[in-house]
Every structure is written in C-alpha cells, then in structure tokens.
Design goal:
heterodimer; A: Amidase signature (AS) enzymes; eleven-stranded mixed sheet; 11 strands; B: alpha+beta; Arc Repressor Mutant, subunit A; 3 domains; three-stranded antiparallel sheet; elongated
C-alpha cells in the first residue's frame, strides 16, 4: 500500500499505532522522488543522507512514545527561497547557485521543533518571479498531470512534488498567487494566509508587503495543521502579527459572493463553469450565493506590477557579489557589482528590477508607485466594505487550466494575466485558499479560490474542509515515463 | 557689493545603545573587523529589520530637547544607492516623516547668544567601513577591505536650516550639539571616535540677493579645527569665484587635512536619485502620547539650562558657556566653591585656569578624590583676603593635588601668611627709606622703576611675610 497520498493525521495515526514507521514512509517518499524526479524536476536538491538518521530518530521517538507532535516524521518539501541552515538557498538563480544559508527561517525552526523532515528544496521561478517555473535558472518543473504543461509558479516545484507524491506536503511563498496558482495547476490545495500571520524571517524577499509563506498540501486539513504550526508573532519579523480578535465569518448558512469581475472576459468557460458548479454545491449545503462587484479587481494586475517590482528593485539590490553569491570579477568594485548582477540575474528578474527602479524614480514616483499605493488602499477598502455584506468570496483560482511550455512566454502580458484572480488577496493582505474541485475538458485539474477577511484564516480553512468533503476531488495524476 | 556666506550643517550622531538599530547584535568596540554580525546587519537573503525601541527613545529625547515638533505617525524609508559597505544596497532612513522637525538650538558665539534653526532630526542606520587599498578612492583602489561591525549602528541625523553665517557659529553649534548628546546620555559624543560626524553645505551670495548661491557640500572634516578651517577656505574660494564671475557648480568637496584645501569629490550630486519609498518591512512608527510624555518627564538638565544657572551665579555668558562644556566635575566644583566664596569670576578663574592647568601638567583629568570644595574655597579666600600671595596660593593648590592637607595650616606652618599690619609695615618702610637715600634721589629724578626695588627690600626685611601691595602703597605715601 502506498502512503504518500494519505493525510498527515492518517499517517500520524499509523505511526502511533506502530503500523508504519517514519523511516518506512521516508523510504517510500524518497523512492517516489527517485522514480518521478527525472520527469518532474520538482526538487532542486534532495536531502537523502541526513534524513536516514533523522527518520531513525523519529522511529525511536514513536517507539518510546516521545514523538514531538502530529508533524513528527512527516517529510515536507521546502521552496528554495526559504532558508534552512547549512543548505543552499538558490532561489533558482545563478546568483545564489553556491549560496549556503547560515541560519534557519523562523518557519523552519518551528517545523524542526515539531520533528518535520525536509525532503529537500524545490524549484521555483527565479526569485519567485513568474507563473510557470520557466524562469528557473536550473530548468523548469513539469506538471505531473501532463509534462508538456507548466506546473504553475512560482512555487511550481512545491506544488508538483506534493502532486507527484515525492513529499507529503510542501511550503511555498505567495506574492501574487505563487502558492495558489501552481496548487491549482497541479490539483492540490494551496493556502495563502493573512499577511503577517506567518513570519517572513528567512524567506528571501521578493515584494515584502505582499510575500507570505503558506502550505501546499493534498487536502485542506493538512494545510490547517501546517498553518497552525507555523503561524504566530515572531520577534524577528516586525510585520508579523499578534493574534487579533476579529469577527469570524459564518460556517453555517453563510453568504458567499461570486466576484463578478473574475467571471468575465479573460476567464475560460471551464473555469467559470467550475465556480458555478461549486456555487450550486454550496447552495445545497444551505449557503446563500450572491454576485458581488469589486470594480478595482480589474486593476489588480496594474497595481501589482508597480508595487511588486518597486519593492523587488530594492530587495534584490543586496545581490552584488560583495558578501556572498557568485562574484564576477571586474576592474573596480562597481564593475564587479555590475558584472555580478549582469551575469547572475535572469531576464525576468532584470525586467522587474528595471520596471521597479523606473516606477520609483524622481519624477515618476507620483505617477506610478504613488498612484499604485493609493489604488491599493482603495482596493483594500473595497474588500473590507464587501465583507460587511458577505462571509466569503469565491472565484476561479486561475483563468484556465495549466498551459503548455512556451505557450505564454512570448506574450508576457498573458502570462501576467494568469495571476488575475490570485493577486487581489495579496494586495489586500487577506487569506485565500485554492481547492481542486474538478477536471477541465482537457482532463486537467481545475480549482476554485475562496477568500475571507483578514485574520479569519482558521475559519476559512474549516469552511474549506466542509466544501472539500462534498466536492470529493479524488483524481490523481498518472505520471508517464517515470521509472516505476 | 558685500558677499555673504550661508552655511547649513548635517550632523550624524552615533547613539550609545546596547544593540544595533535593526538587529540584536551588540554594539562593541573592537579592532577586529567583522566580529559582530548577524544575518540582518550583513544583509543576508531573507533577513529582516526590527527597530530598536531604545534608539527611538533616544532620538525622541534629542528631538524634544531641540524643541522639535514630534512626528507621532512617522515611518522608515529605504534610501537606495549602491556601495560595497552598504549591506543591502539601501539604507534604512527617514524621508518625509522624520521624528523631529522645525526645532532650534541656543548657542553662544563670541560671548553672545545665537539660535541655530533645526530643519529635521531623523533616525537611520550606519553603514560598514571601507578601506580602499592602493588609493583613497573606490574607483582607483586595487582592493577594498570591508568591515561591517559599524553597519546597523543607530545614527541620528540632525540637519540645520541654511542660516549659519560663519565658521565660528558652525563650530559653536557643533560644540553645543555635542554637549547636548553627552548631557542627554544618548551618545559618547567623541569626535575623534566618529561619534559625531558632520558635513557642511556652503554657499555665497551678494548680501542683497534674494536667492542663496549654489551650495557645495564639504566632507571629511574630522575635528572642530578642520571644520573651522574648511569653512573659511571654502568661503574664500567661492567668494573669489563670485568676484571673478566664475560659475560655482553644485558638488561634493573633500577637505584635505594636510594641504588645508577642499578638492572636488564628485559633481552631479544634484542628479542623485535615491528612490526613497517607505520600507515595507517595518510598520509605521507610532509615537504615543504616553511614550512622549514619559521621555519629557525624564528629561535631564540641558546644557542651555546649565549655562543659565552659571550665568545666574554671576558668570559672563562666555564663561558660563565654557564651563558648561568642560568636564562635568568642573561645573559641579565651580558651583560648590562659588557658593562658599560668593565670587563667581575668581572661582571660575581658579578652577578653569590654575586647577585645570596644574592637573593637565600632571597628566590628570580630574582632581584627587580628597580635594573638597571647602579646601579650594579656603585657598581662594586666603589669596583674596591678602592673607597669602597668589604665588603662595598656587603653591598650596599644588600641594593639595599631591596630598591631603589643610590649606590654612599649611600656609601657617610654611610661613606663607602675609603681614598686613600697616603699623608694623610702616616701621619697616621707614627703615628702608632711611637706608636708601640714594635710591630715593634717583626715584625723584624719574627712575620710578626703582620703587619695585624698595618693595623688594621691605619684603626681604620681613622675611617675605609682607603683602607686596601694602608695602608699595605705604612706600609711595612716605615718598610723596
């Protein structure tokens, strides 16, 4: 029997009942990786050697009844922009191909304390900039459902390895949909928490006001377990929040708004039908479905592509070859820094740095970055007002099912549009989850996105668990061509 | 037409917090480079800044004591520029919402009060330290050595309005600011250690011009002396150019300590674009009324208040200012001694002149612990009341620095007490006049200097006990 698609609580029960050992599960997951990675390329590195000992330690803990918690012995994959001390953090960039982090991200410290085993680091679009992992300096990740198609991005590796079963769950980071969009493309659950609930310390920043770490899992319950083990105030992250008391949305007889603007042009028929199908299911559960209009949602891509590049232009300035990273020599210090950046960064990263630098420049700030900040504040207000009327919002996660490699790389705007539905939650800092609900006419996974007000994450997860149970999406990818 | 200079000062004050501005690294003094670093102050990928509350208390204290308006809803900005010793290639600083704005600082220039207008007081982090090998400059160096120990140490930048009119005023301003941060106990205030670093913006214009001239920024002035010299040099350089109708360009100039000239570092300063934007890693800096009130209620005595106390004790503005900027023990000793002597000026002179001078000769920075205000007051009174000569007073003071003595007892046992009994002295004067008729004749013929000789004779006769001024007075009376 395979165990890699079981839920974390099911696995934990098997461990406790001594029907399965962490070392056995790890071997199974590692073998799965060995069989699928040549096709999928979801992991950039696999931590096999050290995990053999760690799995044996976990075995002993379960034998002695001293296990650390529900996550003890669970193999989890980590996106390669989250630091694990002693291991490379490449961000899928040539710039950092040899960079070893000397410290753990706060989320890693927390997961280590719970006995989590890390399968390895997963592929991403360079510095988390992209929607397909095509921007990785180390080659793209393939979608387990169809290797000719992208797994989404930027957390494409993290989504693909969970889908493929080479990790029980994974961590991704979400700046404009980088957890939810690949989760949707790979038919798994992706959760972006409220901004500030999970510490960003140790996550290599792309756009600091938008970035948030979250789980990618086989089911909603696993996301809930991981979220609750990672959340909480961190003295090393000034933007991390202490838990605030917020009015929670209803779990029964809730009012759910379908966002009108995310059911219009640019959204495929498949995606619209999926939302309508789910809406009917929700209605049958006793919830009320209404249409709501959030006009500024249509501007979210424009707002995002000013704010995110502006922040990234400063965040990525530190990669200069002076203290770490791959230094490219020059005749002067400045020439060295220029050469290092010219060679170290890929084209998409350079484009966004240029875009952001321009948007912040004297004389352009007010017209671009300043306007974007104002629009963002208005958008937040729009969402806050809407949540006075409804408990949750629902939309497609992605405008379409997974696209093919190269399909959108020539049309950047179309590529950017694939984040249309996910970006708003980042701009307003509110939680959003992507849940796989069905298959498209191509036989590829489709998901819906459910959003809720800030600091209502656990209610959203609970609500999503109920939806998940009635949707009962049980399809699994069949990975062809792998060594089996 | 008269040409007048205008000067604005930008001063960085290094705060003496235990830890750095945005991380938990200790601020320590060490010669070993790169000893005290963490992911945050080294700008490692994924690190984040968390503001130091103590530093924000310190800057609020400084802003309040310079009468600034406090920005209660401020924020940190990123100032973007590339330099190898700037770990993130942006500096966390403040832009349009600094902690303090529109303040002022009372200073003393040439014995008179003056006011320097403060434009802003803002918080930022220090950079690392670069040593360019093979040349002093980054572009021509063969290699550059970097030490990040300093990176992230909290700095307050104090910017004045361009209303300072002379090098002396600029120097007085820095002296006052230095004393302020020392008295507030927020910085060591040592110029030689770089705790206070200043740049000057200088321009010249015809007196009746409405607009200021083109401003030139002067860097690398490491002492008050170089500040004064650099400003004077730059004013005369610009004045000459204006007189010759040459165009002064906006640039940054470097003060050359050895050659005592300024030379161009870089032009195009006006086009530097730091692309400021609010730092998304740090929430807005909300300074509550409670926070500000607590600081206000614990405000120490300010240098200006101290100075007023000295003025009220009878000192001139100049002297009051000078003792206020002297080591702390001097002001305190002055207060105790002058309370006893009731003679501010004499007390001031004894402490700042004789006492400090003798200590300095011995290589001491403060008086011995046994020295009391009463002892010093006794010496001053003995001299003032003509009981002993000034020279004897100095001798007793020297003795007191050496060991614990009682000044009056010492004066008696060492026969330093002067004879002030005029009847006794008159007898001696008469005797001397009798013996020196020849000298008297010469004095009558205009050789008045010889009176000194006669005084000396009287003192000799008395075995040095006669007060010379009394002897002289009586001699003159007898002769006439």
């Amino acid at each position: 029997m395979n165990h890699y698609k079981l839920s974390i609580s099911e696995i934990n029960k098997l461990f406790k009942d001594k029907k399965l050992k962490p070392s056995e599960l790890y071997s199974e997951v590692f073998e799965r990786a060995a069989n699928t990675e040549s096709i999928i390329h979801g992991h950039l590195t696999l931590f096999q050697d050290e995990n053999i000992k760690k799995a044996a330690d976990a075995d002993k803990r379960y034998e002695n009844g001293t296990e650390l918690g529900i996550l003890d012995g669970i193999p989890i994959a980590i996106k390669d922009n989250i630091n694990i001390a002693g291991y490379a953090t490449t961000c899928s960039s040539q710039m950092l191909s040899n960079y070893i982090s000397p410290y753990d991200a706060t989320v890693i410290t927390k997961l280590k304390d719970e006995g989590v085993m890390f399968t390895g680091k997963t592929n991403l679009d360079e510095f988390a900039m992209g929607s397909s992992t095509e921007n990785s300096a180390f080659g793209p990740t393939k979608n387990p459902w169809d290797p000719s198609r992208v797994p989404g991005g930027s957390s494409g590796g993290s989504a693909a390895v969970v889908s493929a079963g080479s990790a029980i769950a994974s961590l991704g980071s979400d700046t404009g949909g980088s957890i939810r969009q690949p989760a949707s493309f790979c038919g798994v659950v992706g959760f972006k928490p409220t901004y500030g609930t999970v510490s960003r310390f140790g996550l290599v920043a792309f756009a600091s006001s938008l970035d948030q770490i979250g789980p990618i899992t086989n089911n909603v319950e696993d996301s809930k377990i991981l979220f609750n083990s990672m959340k909480g105030f961190d003295p090393f992250d000034a933007t991390s929040g202490k838990e605030s008391k917020t009015k929670q949305p209803k779990l029964k007889n809730a009012k759910i708004g379908i966002i009108k603007e995310l059911m219009e042009d640019g959204i495929s028929e498949d995606a619209k039908l999926e939302v309508q199908k789910v809406a009917k299911l929700l209605e049958s559960q006793g919830h009320e479905i209404v249409e709501v209009s959030l006009p500024l949602t249509k501007m979210s891509i424009s707002i995002y592509y000013l704010i995110a590049p502006a922040e990234c232009s400063a965040n990525l300035s530190r990669f200069d070859g002076v203290r770490y990273g791959n230094r490219v020599a020059g005749n002067t210090s400045y020439e060295m820094m220029e050469n290092t950046r010219a060679e170290g960064f890929g084209p998409e990263v350079k484009k966004r740095i240029l875009l952001g630098t321009y948007a912040l420049s004297a004389g352009y700030y007010d017209a671009f970055y300043g306007q974007a900040l104002k629009a963002r504040a208005m958008m937040k207000k729009e969402f806050t007002e809407t949540y006075k009327e409804v408990d949750y919002l629902i939309s497609p996660t992605t405008p379409s099912d997974p696209f093919k490699f190269g399909e959108k790389s020539d049309n950047q705007l179309e590529m950017y549009m694939s984040d249309l539905c996910t970006i708003p939650a980042n701009l307003v800092g509110m939680p959003a989850i992507s849940i796989p609900t069905g298959l498209s006419s191509n036989g590829l996974p489709l998901s819906v996105q459910i959003m809720s007000p800030a600091n209502t994450d656990n209610t959203l997860l609970e609500f999503s668990q109920k939806l998940e149970s009635v949707v009962s999406f049980t399809s699994l990818p069949e990975i062809k061509g792998g060594v089996s | 037409m008269k040409i007048v200079p205008t000067i604005g000062m930008e001063t960085h004050v290094e705060l003496k917090t235990n830890s750095k501005m945005f991380c938990r690294c200790n601020v320590v003094e060490t010669d070993k480079p790169n000893e005290n670093l963490c992911p945050t102050c080294l700008g490692l990928p994924g690190s984040l800044p968390v503001p130091n509350k103590r530093a924000i208390e310190f800057i609020t204290l400084l802003a309040l004591s310079t009468k600034c308006q406090i920005t209660t809803d401020g924020m940190f900005h990123r100032k973007n520029y590339f330099y190898p010793d700037l770990p993130k290639n942006y500096q966390i600083s403040q832009f349009d919402l600094p902690v303090g704005t529109e303040g002022s600082l009372e200073i003393v220039v040439n014995g008179e009060f003056s006011t320097v207008e403060i434009e802003r007081v803002h918080m930022e982090e220090d950079t690392g330290k670069s040593t360019h090998i093979g040349s002093g400059r980054i572009d021509s160096a063969t290699s550059t050595h970097l030490d990040f120990n300093r990176a992230g140490i909290p700095l307050v930048e104090v910017v004045t309005k361009p209303l300072i009119k002379s090098s002396k005023e600029a120097v007085s301003y820095i002296e006052e600011l230095r004393q302020l941060v020392i008295d507030l106990d927020i910085s060591e205030g040592k110029l030689e250690k770089g705790n206070l670093r200043f740049d000057a913006n200088i321009s010249v214009a015809y007196e009746n011009d409405d607009e200021l001239g083109t401003k030139v920024e002067i860097k690398n002035m490491n002492s008050l002396r170089s500040l004064e010299k650099a400003i004077e040099y730059e004013i005369s350089r610009q004045t000459k150019m204006l007189n010759n109708n040459e165009t002064i360009i906006q640039e940054t100039r470097h003060w050359d300590e050895k050659k005592e000239v300024t030379s161009s570092m870089r032009s195009k300063e006006g086009s530097a674009d730091y692309r400021y934007f609010s730092d998304p890693d740090i929430p807005n800096m909300i300074l509550s009324k409670d926070f500000i009130d607590k600081i206000k209620n614990n405000m120490p005595v300010l240098p200006s208040e101290k100075r007023n106390t000295f003025i009220n004790s009878g000192l001139s503005i100049e002297d009051a200012n000078s003792i206020g900027k002297s080591p702390k023990w001097m002001g305190e000793l002055y207060k105790s001694v002058s309370d006893i002597t009731n003679d501010s000026k004499t007390t001031f002179n004894w402490i700042t002149g004789e006492l400090q001078g003798q200590l300095r000769k011995l290589g001491e920075t403060s008086p011995p612990e046994w020295m009391t205000a009463e002892q010093l007051a006794e010496i001053i009174s003995l001299v003032k009341n003509d009981k002993i000569s000034f020279t004897s007073g100095k001798e007793i003071l020297a003795e007191l620095i050496e060991e614990k003595i009682n000044p009056e007892e010492y004066a008696i046992s060492n026969k330093l007490i002067q004879e002030n009994d005029t009847e006794e002295i008159s007898k001696m004067v008469k005797e001397i006049i009798k013996e020196n008729s020849e000298v008297l004749e010469r004095i009558a013929n205009g050789e008045e200097k010889l009176i000194g000789f006669l005084v000396g004779q009287v003192i000799k006769l008395s075995n040095g006990k006669v007060n010379p001024s009394v002897a002289k007075e009586l001699l003159l009376k007898e002769i006439k």
